Please model this.
Amino acid sequence: MKHMNSEVKEERTSNKNRIDLFLVPIVLIAAFLNLFKIWTDEYANAYYTAAVKSMLQSFHNFFYASFDPGGYVTIDKPPVVFWIQTISAEIFGFHGWSVILPQALAGIGSVLLLYVLVKRTFGVWAGRLAALAMALTPIVPAVSRTNNIDSMLVFTLLVATWMLFRAVRTAKFGWVLAAFAMIGVAFNMKMLQAYMVLPAFYVFYVVATKITWKKKIAFLTTATALMLAVSVSWAVVVDSTSADKRPYMGSSQTNSVLELAFGYNGINRLTGNTSVTGSGHKQPAQTEQQTASSETKQTSNSSADSSQSSNQRKSSSSQKMQAPGGGNQNGMFNTGNPGPFRLFQKGLSDQISWLLPFVIFSIVGLFAGVKFKGPYTTKQKESLFWLAWLLPVAVFFSIAGFFHQYYLIMLAPPIAAFAGAGAVALWSMYKQHNGWKSWLLPGGILTTAALQVYIMSPYVSSIGVAPIAGVGALGVILALVLAVRKQRKNSLTNYLGAAAMVVLLAMPAYWAMTPIIYGGNSMLPSAGPDSSSGMGGPPSTATNSKQSGFNGMQPPGSSSGNSSSNNQMQPPSGSSNGGQMPGGSSNNSQMPNSSSSKSSSSKRKSGGMNAEVNQKLLNYLTKNNTGEKYLFATTDSTSAAPYIIKTGKPVMAMGGFSGSDPILTVSKLKAMIKKGEVKYFYLSGMGKGGQSDVITWIKDNSKEIPSSKWQSTSSSAQQGPSGNGTLYEITLK
Model:
């Protein structure tokens, strides 16, 4: 052990001031996967991009993360990531790529941090392989290429990990405080999801520090108190501010940040209990991807729902908008069914699980011979940290009632760390003929190749048989040859080991590139040959699946897009398509893998909300505005976001993101109209939960504007799930 420690110290000294040339291509790969072509995504996730547009206009909007320039309602997440995005937009100008850039850089930063964290203890090759595995984990670049929060969240938690490791090495309490404070910052990015790493932090600090139990308890208690204080700091300020002096807290039912944190963004994710009540009407609580749920389920062409009966497809709109993953939804958004093998089910496995069998073998090897009472080596202590990160998060995703595929990025750091550290450890055991441990390397290669064949098999129509057969055959051959050559020591064996790692990383690398090859989805990011659909599952068997990339749906602007218009939602964009998928293009820009991909538009108007405006409607509203604060009001953010992005003018999403927030009452609306704050209302049939009384009053007391005055000639009707969209005008004296 002393000899090994001296070697590690010598390696650190010799490499202290030297750039690792092997790391350079890994970083370049990460940069390519995270940055290339992000400039083609004009709107990104329009819900969050609209918030950045609003936050640029005033400090009030900036501090509260207001969705609209008028400060009516906030977005459904804390503000830290959006503060960073707003600063980026202020520096580089307001563009889709400028709000994506911080997350892309965070994805690259996570690769570098993992290299640093693993290299110090497990060696330079372990660090290199861990960094490469992180860069090539498909869901990592898929998320990092969007303005969703998760990439920045993982980077922040890795910064906290670096601080914790430094706290243990230096025995300085200040670094412990910094590490836990950083988790508090992460809480203000995505709330309780940041706390998933706490078991790892507590276990590692208790096991790794050489201080008395009394000091351990005192230090951890103090650090936890600081973490909680940082976590709730913004929430306390917001909740203690008078409701009439700040925006409504979006997606909460009581206008409270703390309720949002521990309900909608907290326990409800685990239980799947997303039902809420607003104004006495029980409606499904909407999520940040609720529009996608509605559109996906309502599309009659989607073969993904071909197993449903016609009665199910004709169910009421409230049933159709059941929150994904909750209750009896059977894994909406391809999140599979809860159970111990959920991470190996299609839709999840191809996002994160490519190396899981190898990781399991690595864990066995790294902990082989460890006694419960210790003593523990530094490698074993840090392995325990990554295990304490991996297991609770894996258990959560195995049983959770509601989450999205891109949340799985939380599993990427421990999987990558074990892949790197484990590869070096298993190779050492193999070369030293260390009894049964020497079989772990070929066993890990064989089982991992088998899982990868299973993961790819549903995509045979998209990727062909060759890569599936190639990975399977090469995995079996290399594992068998390594098993046979266990007693031989020569350069050929070294090449065989390297070849095995190349084989195991080949298809994850291809999957990681699919958002670039096929186009990504900014609202529901996922990787795979159908990444542009945002569904992350195997391709549709429908005849048009290869052309559309929508699991059977016609792409925006296609002539047959209105075949099921009454079951589809469309905001007032004037496009002729019915039921646009989240992140799909506008009527002027086809998806990249569409048969009409040679669109005249050079930008991909993604955003999950049909991120395009009806210019005729905009002209009408602008011309007839007589000083009203809001350009128009609508039920939810789906219709509002594109107009906010386009004009920078206030547009009121009366019920918040999904239309279910109980923000507005009839009396409040009357007062706003009398003050001259709003007079036009676009109602599409979406988002009546919690505001049905308001919508009924609007219809009973308004003048309907003829569609010929505001509707583009390219569209015969504005469609919503319960009827055609309509523009109303109300003036009260």
